[in-house]
Amino acid sequence: MADDHDFHSGESGASETYPAQCSSLRKNGHVLLKGRPCKIVEMSTSKTGKHGHAKVHMVGIDLFTQKKYEDICPSTHNMNVPIVNRKDFQLLDIVDGYLSLLEDDSSVRDDIKNPSNELGKEIADRFANEEQLLVTVLSAMGHECAISVKNCPK
According to the model, what pLDDT value does residue 6 have? Predict the structure, then answer.
């Protein structure tokens, strides 16, 4: 009997999140609130109630939209924590609103949009002044965006 399974098109199975007990989360850490990756900006824990669980109230700012989200979770329950990566790229060019970034392996990425906020204006202005720049890109759950810029080390 032959197996008709095609494993070539499957995903690797690498998760974009991992579980963590609510009481182990900390301010300035990351958590999934309403399905969005957020940075925790406020946390408070209530006293144990008559049903035995202390509750944790969390306020988070979406990493990509800057929208505020809130949630309350029993301290003993698990919450999902997004796997967040930061990486610096050398800026080569800005073409049609997209950053042209140099990878470590000398390949070029052209898929990161220049932000439409103060940071994007700063990147464009400094690039126009012919500064050598490093752009920090944050990635989580299949989304990526530029979050900061600094001068290349000499």
Answer: 46
Using an 8 Å Cβ cutoff, are 149 and 136 in contact?
Answer: yes
What confidence tens digit (pLDDT) does each residue in 49-65 have? Answer: 677 778 999 999 999 99
Radius of gyration of the chain measured on its C-alpha atoms:
20
Distance of alpha carbon 21 from alpha carbon 28, whole angstroms: 16
Question: Any idea what DSSP says for residue 131?
Answer: -
How does pLDDT run across 109-142, given as a tens digit for each residue? Answer: 999 999 989 999 999 999 999 999 999 999 999 9
H/E run at residue 87: strand 85-95
H or E segment to which residue 21 belongs: strand 17-21
- Which of 124, 151, 152, 149 has its CA nearest to residue 138? 149
Largest Cα–Cα separation, the chain: 68
- Per-residue confidence (pLDDT) for residue 124, from 0 to 100: 95
3-state class of 128 per DSSP?
A: helix
**CB-based contact 135:88 (threshold 8 Å):** yes
